[in-house]
Every structure is written in C-alpha cells, then in structure tokens.
Amino acid sequence: MRIDSSSEELVAMFEWARDRALRWAHPAGSRGPLNVDERQPHGTGEGAYLPSYWAGYAHRSGFYLRDFVHQLPGAHLLGLHAANLAMLRCFAASATEEHGHRPVWAFNFDGSYLSIDYRSPDAFVREAPAVYELVEAGAAAYRWTGDRSYVDDPVLWDYYRRAVDLPPTAMGTGIFDGTATYNEQDGEPLAVAGDGVAAQYAAFLAMAELSRARGLDGDAYERRALDLRRRFASEWKGARGFTRDGTPVTGWGMESSWFPALKRLTADEDLLDHIDAQTRGPGRPHNVEAWTYLPDTFFRHGRTETAWRWMREIFASREGEHVAGGRNGDYPEVSFTLVSQVVEGLLGMRPHGDAIVTEPSLPSGVDWLSVSGIPVGGGSVAVHHEGGTTTLTNLSRHLTYTWTACGLTQRVPPGATLTARRTGTA
Fold first, then answer.
1. Nearest by Cα to 54 from 113, 119, 107, 118
2. Are 360 and 369 in contact (CB under 8 A)?
3. What InterPro entries does this protein map onto (predicted)?
4. CA-based diameter of the chain, in Å?
5. Cα 253 vs. chain centroid, distance in angstroms?
6. How much is the pTM?
7. What confidence tens digit (pLDDT) does each residue in 207-223 have?
8. Of 146, 211, 240, 403, whose CB count within 10 A is highest?
9. E strand intervals along 263-378
10. How far apart are CA 146 and CA 137, in angstroms?
C-alpha cells in the first residue's frame, strides 16, 4: 500500500508502521528457532515455519492469541492473508476436548505450542475474552477477503460454534487456570469481567454473520447479542465485573473498563469520557500494548480527535522503553494496528467481499488523505478523502465493487474512479 497526505506526520507514521510490520513476517517454509524466551534465549531447536508473523514479545519466538486477533486486519492490509488463515487455524484446532474447547494461548512459528505458556492440558494460559475474539477475527477476515475458507473450513466452523457457547467466567485465579479478563495487573478475583462479556457480544454478532454466509439462519445469534446488550445495560450499571459471590466491582480496570465501548456493547458517552480521562491521567496503562486499543475504541464512537491523539502518541513513543525490555516500536502490535487504524479508522473502510462502505473522518491538521493498493476481496482499491468528498478507484482488472459512501450506493467497474460528496459540502 502507498499513502499520501497533507500531513507529513501521518505519512511518516504509516510508512514506518507498514515497513516495520512486514519485517515481522515469515514466509512459509522459512526455518528458525523454537521456544525462545527469556529463560531459554537459544530455544530448543529449530523448525520449518508456517506462513506467519510475530504477535507478542520480540524476545519470544511465537505468536499470541490476544495479539493475533488485534493484528489480523493490519496483517491482511499488508498482504499476509495466508499467514492469517494458517494462524487462525492453529488456534482453532487447539481448542480440543482435552483443552475444554479453549484455544492454546501461544504457538511457535511452526505451529507447535510455545512452551513458556503451555505446561499441560490442564495448565496453559487462558483469558476469557480471547476465546470470543477469535470468532470475531474469523468474521473480519472473511469480510476483508471474501475467502470462503473462513466460513466453510470444518476446523474453523467447529471452533466458532463451540466458542460462543462457552461461559465468560473465570476458571481459576491465575492465567494458567483461566481468568475472566485480559487485565493481568490487578490480581482481582473477578468471576466475570467487562472485557469478556463485551467480547462475547461481538462474537454473537460475528456468528450471526458467519452463519448467514453458510446459508444458515443467523437470527438466533443476533437475538443473543441483543439480549446480552439489554442485560448489560440493566444489570451492570457502572460495574466492570463481578466477584464469585455476585459483588459488583467498579472503578478503573483498563481492559475491563474500555472493552464494552471497544466492542460497542455500550455507547455510553460518560463511559467514553471516563476512559479518556483515566488513560490521560491516573489510570494510564504502562504497557504500549494497552494503548493500541484506544484509537480503535474512540474511532468506533466517532471521537476522531481523541483516536488520532492516541495514534500520534503511540507513534511518538516508538523509541521509548517497553515494560518488558526493548523498545515500544519493537512490539509488533504497535505497527500492525497503526496500519489498520489509518485504513479502518481515518478512512472508515468497511469491506464485505466485493462490497465496500467508506465513512472517512479526518482530524484537524489532516486536510486530505489518500491510500492506494488497499486489498479488498479479490482485488484492490485506492481511496482519497478531502473535505466532504471521497473518491474511490477500482484497481482491479475483473472485479466490480459495490461502493456505499455519503448515503449513495454505486457500482464501480474495473479501472473506474467514482466520487461521492457529503450533502451540503461545496
């Protein structure tokens, strides 16, 4: 992909993120070490890698579930479709009966379990939100690619249908027992957490979409999502989790606080204000990984200026020291998510195979933005946005897109360039 913009900072950000993310990718068949971590700096041998990319700490030789699902859209945009499919299958296939139908947390690049996070079938890292985010990731990959593998593959489908029925409750008190939340810092005895429930809500909606793609009725999953949303609104009332005895837990809890907004389980403006205030003040996360969720959270609720502020802060911090050592910019999630936030956030790209919706929103200081070579379905497009006008060029030779922008739906044949203008703009 290529970028051009009135903002030199945005161009520099995107080009750095694109180039840095691609350096984390492994072609199929490349060879490298296995089980490298801080305790085993030389690993336990080497193997032939799957098409894959780093998703997790740079000093560990593998990819992690939580990182993978957040990096998947950026990886698609960078042409790493084969890696996305191979990695998704690894996680889905690991959710065996022996594992309680929950996916293994981390893999070596050859598809074997990463030893530091897997001790036995009864002791491996499990965090409830990831179970559901994997379903959402499959639906997102299908929307971007149109590849029916994400719908028809029996391993993936078996995982999806089982995962949405798993409860979002903790299985124990530590990550190797199974926790309810992504927040590993507080050590709170949460039986259920806001991030787990929010991720399940998004998974229900994803499952409705995947079911319909298979020619099945998705309405039941949509009803489950709506019922969960109603129960959250009526029962949680400011809580971000509950203990085993049903006591609500309030206050700031990072992921358990912002995931309900991230997943659109709620559109509470007071909650968004709270997230903004906490992340700029006393509740500011120490780990850059947590920061990478904030642009997505604010973009999804139309708070473009706040989302852009976080993108700039993340980019500016790339040379800063990461909490686990090394530089922030060497944490792969930073570069992959900045790529997707430019396309999905600033340009507002919403694909579904050969159908595209664009809802661009540029912050102050960015007068116009163009990105070319965005892969959608079996082809690619270029999008330019300036003022109230969006232009889409179909770069494909054989594929016609259906494009919706500014309330207008148009057919865009191969090689064509069409324009949509927001009502009331010059």
1. 107
2. yes
3. 6-hairpin_glycosidase_sf (IPR008928), 6hp_glycosidase-like_sf (IPR012341)
4. 64
5. 20
6. 0.97
7. 999 999 999 999 999 99
8. 240
9. 349-352, 355-358, 368-376
10. 13
